[in-house]
Amino acid sequence: xxxxxESGGGLVQPGGxxxxxxxxxxxxxxxxxxxxxxxxxxxxxxxxxxxxxxxSTNYGDSVKGRFTISRDNAKxxxxxxxxxxxxxxxxxxxxxxxxxxxxxxxxxxYWGQGTQVTVSS
Length: 121
What we know:
Order of helices and strands: EEEEEEEEEEE
Number of helices: 0
């Protein structure tokens, strides 16, 4: 079955960096777009970044220029490099398999456990 295991979160000071990893198994990783989402307390889950099967990328407006998504199909892993972190980046971060439906990407029903990122001095 589908498994997504996120790691790499932690406590970091404002302006710092973290690299998140998501190890995928149970499906053919290379043929799916993958996304990183985050959910802060009291807020809805939001898309942070997405990478397509052809390695095209798109980002949420709040992270453009600071975050970089990448993937390694040989390792079935998707990464999120986060630089210049801000307190408002504090959230639980999740990766997710993406489906293309009627020209738009939608998230899979399955979600991993996520990894907590806390940006605070």
